[in-house]
Write a structure and sequence with these properties.
Two copies of one chain form a homodimer. Chain A has five helices and ten strands. The first copy, chain A, is of the alpha+beta class. Chain A has two domains: 9-148, Nucleoside Triphosphate Pyrophosphohydrolase (Alpha-Beta Complex); 154-224, Arc Repressor Mutant, subunit A (Orthogonal Bundle), CATH 1.10.10.10. The longest helix of chain A is centred in the middle third of the chain and has 15 residues, at 131-145. The N and C termini of chain A lie far apart (59 Å). The relative contact order of chain A is 0.17. Chains A and B meet through strand 5 of A and strand 5 of B. Chain A binds a DNA duplex through residues 161-163, 178-181, 183-185, 200-201, 203-209, 229.
Chain lengths: 230, 230
DNA sequence: CCAAAAGTGTTAGTCTTACACCCATGA
DNA sequence: TCATGGGTGTAAGACTAACACTTTTGG
């Protein structure tokens, strides 16, 4: 009589952030293929399998639902309100992920998703269940995190014009920053190596220096922790 | 054939911190009454019930196993390694809790625990499963957290001599702090109101002023977030 | 009067913030 | 030559960190 349907189910959800010059910081969402809330937008995610680690479950679901591979993955928060899913008691461990070159990774939905698409963080649709709360938690986390870890690099290519980094911060924080103070402080971290390449934007303007990201110093820094007020 | 024993089980564990003048910052542990690892020390915790929120489950287990009521409860991290428990795949959501007046709350073990006891954070016993990892995560969290939230107050009585606050920080950080800088910075937060009482320690020494904690200003501050480097 | 703990100020150095002009390019 | 975005320095103020002597009490 102890039917397995009376057990709590365990799921994972992922908030995947990407950056592109044109759209700024965006989040990857899927359109649900099945009820409940068929065709509504949701975070990618699904049930954890027996014997599978939480992180493996997230990566598997992301592959299945969006075709994407993430570059950085960190646990965000576990949402356990028994009423968060109308069907049954489902506890979801939410993850926070960053991908490089958001616009150039091919999105291909299949299994449980009708469609997968990027939404800029200030043009988000209504989401199913408590997914808006999850997403807001993730946005709060990334905004906080960027102040004490140079995670911006996880969203950019290995080489990038300095202005990309600046635009990423502006988009993420949703406000202007002082270019002079920002560049001084960023360069002082010693995680950027200047290259001899230049980047010419389409349109007018002086070409900008291309930097590459010094992985070794970055890992050192990530361990120590930084204080990066902007 | 899909026996319910093949499902992932969901548990909660709690790392409860308390402070006393004599022992500094301590953690509440229980001695297991049943196998596996009967008589070994462990974090209090247990399975989440159908329809029960995670936080309710933590509070219930703490009551059952230790008789204690916590003052502050915050989610820490979810531990999901399928091999963390030798019996089966059990995912545990760990919580981080603070209690006032650790030494004066009556500990009474019953249900699943042989015994419950406080251990100073630098004299911890070996723990079962991955509980040492959970505990280390919690210690890292509280050490970090104390730098940007005045959570020290959650561990002290409503009124306390200033030196208690200082000793709490020393015990938690495991190193000496500069008394002059500490008190200047702490008082500048405006969350301490001076009372007209004095506290006479046993033994020698000048009596110290007794402060009380301004809840209103504290809540304001907690919202804004502080930067409290020591 | 000695030992122990509480209370209190100043200074140098570092970090943060605010602010404006020149440069290289394409149209 | 104009419009656009890139690149760079300086000065005032705030905060941090380092440091020692005086006060009050009990023994």
């Amino acid at each position: 009589m102890a039917a397995s349907s009376t057990n709590i189910k365990l799921a994972v959800d992922a908030v995947v952030f990407g950056y592109s010059k044109s759209d700024g910081v965006s989040v990857l969402l899927i359109q649900r293929k099945y009820a409940p809330f068929k065709n509504s937008w949701a975070l990618p995610g699904g049930f954890v399998r027996q014997g599978e680690s939480l992180e493996d479950a997230v990566r598997r679901e992301l592959k299945e639902e969006t075709g994407i591979s993430v570059n950085y993955l960190e646990q965000l928060y576990t949402f356990g309100d028994p009423k968060r899913d109308p069907r049954q008691h489902i506890v979801s461990v939410a993850y926070f992920a960053l991908v490089k070159s958001a616009k150039y990774q091919q999105l291909k939905a299949d299994t449980d998703a009708e469609n997968a698409s990027w939404f800029p963080i200030n043009e988000l649709p209504k989401l199913v269940f408590d997914h808006s709360e999850v997403l807001n938690t993730a946005i709060a986390r990334i905004r906080m995190k960027i102040r004490y870890e140079p995670i911006g690099f996880e969203l950019l290519d290995r080489k990038f014009p300095f202005s990309d980094l600046e635009h990423l911060y502006i988009s993420l924080l949703g406000r202007d920053i002082d270019r002079r103070n920002f560049s001084r402080k960023m360069l002082a971290l010693n995680v950027l190596d200047e290259t001899d390449e230049m980047y010419k934007a389409e349109g007018k303007g002086r070409p900008s220096k291309v930097y590459k990201f010094n992985k070794k110093n970055y890992e050192q820094l990530a361990k120590e922790g930084i204080n990066f007020e902007i």
